[in-house]
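Hi,

I'm pasting everything inline rather than attaching a file, because the server keeps stripping attachments. The sequence lines come first, and each chain or strand is labelled.
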Amino acid sequence: MDREEIFSQIQKTFQLEPLLRLQEELLGKKGKLTQALRKIPSLPPEERAAEGQRLNLLKKEVQEALAKKSQDLENKSNQDQSLEYFDVTLPGKKPPIGTGTLHPITQMRQKAEEIFQLMGFEIVEPREVDDDYHVFESLNIPPGHPARDMWDTFWTEQGHIPITHTSSMQNRVLTSRKPPIRAIIPGKCFRHEATDSRHEHTFYQIEGVLVDKNITLTDLIGTLVTFMEAFYEKKIRYKIQPSYFPFVEPGLEFLIECVICQGKGCSTCGRSGWLELVPCGPIHPKVMEMANLDQEKYSGFAWGLGLDRLVMIKYGIEDIRRFHSGDLRFLGQF
Amino acid sequence: MRLSLNWITDYTTVKLKPQELAARLSETLTEVSQIEKVGADTVLEIENKALTHRPDCFSQRGLAREVAAATSQPFQSKNWAEVPTAGSEKELQVEVTDGLICPRYTMVLIDKLQIKASPPWMQERLLAGGMRPINNLVDVTNYVMLELGQPLHAFDYDKIAQHHIIVRAAGQGEQIQTLDGNQRALEEGTIVITDPQEILAVAGIMGGASSEINSQTSIVALESATFAPARIRAASTRLGLRTEASTRFEKGLDPNLTEEALRMAIDLLSQLMPEAQVASKIIDFYPQRESPRTIEVDPREITKDIGQRIEGGRLQEIFEALGLKVWVKGNLWLVEVPTYRRDLNRKEDLVEEVARIYGYSNLKPTLPPRDLKPPTVNHEVAFDRLLKSTLASLGGHETLSYSFISEELIKATGFALEDCPRLVNALSPEIEWLRPSLLPSLLLTTQTNLKFFEQFFLFELGKGFTTGANQLPQEDKLVAGLVVGPSENWLTFKGLLEAFLEKTGVGQVQWHKGEATTTLYHPERWAKLISGHTELGSCGQISPALAKKLGLPESTYLFEMKVSQLRSAFKEPSYQPPDRFPPVIEDLSVLVDQDLPAAKVCQEVDQADTPELQVRSAVKEVYQDEKMPPNQKSVTVQVIYRSPSRTLTEAEISPKREEIIKTLEKRLKGKVRRA
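And the predicted assembly:
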């Protein structure tokens, strides 16, 4: 009777039933230990005492070990007993349908919306297809205006436009509310452009508009800086470039130092060190006029923030077409 | 637009290195996208798109003025000699039919030309400006255009019939062969330059082949004019012709430039061809002379709009550097704007001039004042978020798909094509129609995803469109989902939808078995979801035919609901205190006709409900076996008896149970299996 072997067997037994079987094999009526003890009287007299003492001690130790193991096993819950060995590294079983995800554009939109809401902006949603007046004319882009070239437009048979920017809601927001007006307009936009890894005919934008008494150019800058710092949760470096958009005067481009390379120049920022993120500017007097706002009393500003770009920068997404691919290998990662 | 550093030194001193100047102009004018060495010259590539309102910047002189103002260097203007009166005047008649399409038309004749190559200095500058040298005459016209921004056009004088130029709008069906050899049909209204016999040029865009200059040309008629920008733009768009000239004309040129440009051209030609002679007076059609505008402004308003105090002296400096003049009139300033700055019309325009030259980086950010009022909550957006996060928490992956789909897919899924708005300029047939539903897109996405996954749940919240008669299309926010996988069945799918509706607070939904046959759903296995009197939407298993057509498994389940309807069915939770007295819960099995909806049993049981002895039931199990009579099934419902005031005894429940059993037997012809 090898002592080591017996204890190793007890050790390797993880379920109650095999343990009971083992107990029977060792200590039952026909058990190995029982039989060995029975054989003692037939041993030569000089060995009897020592062997008897050894076997009795072993029997006692085995009984204790079995009792302890049996108690351990009872303490485990029933399901655990199916495990031969408790392997923490085995993969868990997920619900069959798996875990869900929100589209990264939705997540980013919600994050931006929450910050703007805290800053006092209400959320207004645009129409997806609108008329020429709201997409262009009310934004100081009359028919034939060369600035129309800045937007490549889809048209429906009825002459309506899948919106080229969510500024299409600006006139409605300005005419349906009394100052102070603070609103953001997040939505889906369209441009007539063939797709490739960097161009997409469907994209997302958050327009912002604010009208109140004594609104200044420095207020516009401060508002955008405040948002960007809340969004990236750190101090940012920014700069402003003159640009041209007919619905603001002056037309500006708000750039932040590339958050990927900290301004050193990388592929995300086109080696310039700067990210062109927000076209913006004080609302053009003609836009104010078309919204019947008293310009002696009020002034304001507006901007258009591109959501797709924010998401691409954040996750280093290399191909803008992923957004509308519906590919679970993409969506499942967020 | 290309800025030649060599060229602008004619007007100002450039002290900054090219990189520094590019950075400064990026702040004061617009983005400088590239710096390029061209021979001994350095060229800055200036982004065009932000200069739509600045035709003056489509010239080296205009850019030089910007550089001077941005770097606080003086700007030196050039003057050209008066045109010498010709000794031998040639005959020329100019007739403009409409001053609205052509506010100014100037022309001069030059005789004794010697056409040859232009000198190297001129060729170098043309190349820096992005133009190919051709011959001294053409090069002079291009040189003037690049320097002043005024395009010129040269006609062969001898090819002008009766030496009579007419500027008019094209009528119907007129044609011209342009310089590039193409025969072009002109749209009615296109401005054309003609003689009494034929069209000589498409005004502001391209000349015609018939009056083209060649080496035999000895007398040239040089045109320098201003055309209505919208007409030029429309014509160049329609003809698909974008030229250096049309780019400038369509921005609206300063009419006071035309004569100056002719004088510069004459000056250059006399340098390049000493024998050349001016052979006419400058013929000038200019009925409505434009003078500098004056803007009356309170300088304090300018700094107030900017939001930062800037010294009056600095404001005046900035205006004068840009070529504006300032007269102080008490508290007000009269700011005179030269006619080449056609973009400056009001105070706001002056604010921009100050802000950009002062430097946006020198402005200290501030925040608008605001009260403590929280913004108005957009409940619709909040509800969308609830729907989306609930679907994601139930295992759904949110997709965003195009709002446009193909005719084929609309038809395949059984939607009415005639109700869908169509794009006239779709990029491809796959994205030509505004979608009536989100399900077609989800089905397409599923096809692709099945290559990599066998079981999944996709959803989308977006808009569906219906054509409105002569008005904007109707847009409905929809929420749709698709579940596919070998272990999916109707009940797991329904359970998912029930969880979704419960979690989003859409109460009391009835499931009506779909009756009509649809293209989308399995004829037997689909349902309408109704809450109160509103139809929320529909759901069901995919039709086997559609599954086959799209190569999808039959265990594909779909739903689509209108978000507005879900929102109107939304109910805040209505709180009920937990039972004070223990309920009595028991099962009740009844044999009924196999076609009876199980919910009917519960409806009948719940009839026994009274305020003092409340009865609620729920289906627990339905089964059929061979021991039952044919066409019968067993429905087991769990019945819960409650009392708000006491612990119920068997003596109280027993008559209630008997009442229920009687109802079931009578109303459903059921046979209750007594325990």
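Chain A has a mean pLDDT of 90.

If the labels don't parse on your end, tell me and I'll reformat.
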